[in-house]
């Protein structure tokens, strides 16, 4: 197997407009580079945390006009690192966007795109409620891409709750899985660490989850705690609650070691029962 690498996760408090976020994210990406990171990731909604739906639709841009894309292409070239732009809102038509991740190679080329599949339409306690599907159109394709150190599977935030997607990515060859997020405080406190560790353990893959933190426009609060998890489920780094960067040295052989000990990915069984059996293969496989 190829030698190891250093991963760097950016944790930030995105504002509602692109300009300050480009500055914030760029500073933190450069900090990650200064700490030796070869693969640097930013959270979901790196471009804006805009709670107002009409304003979000107004500010979202199609790919050809989105200011974050040239900024991140430049950052990839400047740092010579692989770069995951966790997500930005890409305008699809007058009434909808895609919540899209972009993977840049060190030459600044976009080598993969992923549109968040599962929409966060939930009602929490104390009237905290979300209807992501009113502004965003869900993706329909699981996406993997090849890094120099092995295959990457891409997911976003609420996708974390859908184990069948992670299994499909692992069966499609993913050894590392990204989960850029903007988790709510109450659901983060209750579920974030255990779900990320579970996805890593179930798939025998490294999980990289860069997160939004702090208080955003109109009092929206996010959980933080960007996490790097090993295929055995160990938390290698936790970003706490403040903006910053976390890093860890990643040894890809740990994937084979975990899967060698517990070959659960190869132990699927067909079974009959009360509902449809979840899909077991990545799209296109
Ligand atoms: O709404 C915002 O402004 C920012 N949040 C997001 O963009 C997304 C979709 S609304 N958040 C999540 O998916 C949180 C999931 C989550 O917290 C969970 O699964 O518990």
From TrEMBL:
User: Which parts of the chain span the membrane according to its record?
Assistant: none
Q: Protein biosynthesis among the record's keywords?
A: no
- PROSITE patterns of this UniProt entry? CN_HYDROLASE (PS50263)
Gene Ontology MF terms? hydrolase activity, acting on carbon-nitrogen (but not peptide) bonds, in linear amides
Q: What positions does the domain CN hydrolase occupy?
A: 5-252
Alphabetized, the UniProt keywords read:
Hydrolase
Claim: Nucleus is one of the keywords in the record: no
Return the protein name: Amidohydrolase
The organism of origin for this protein: Hypericibacter adhaerens
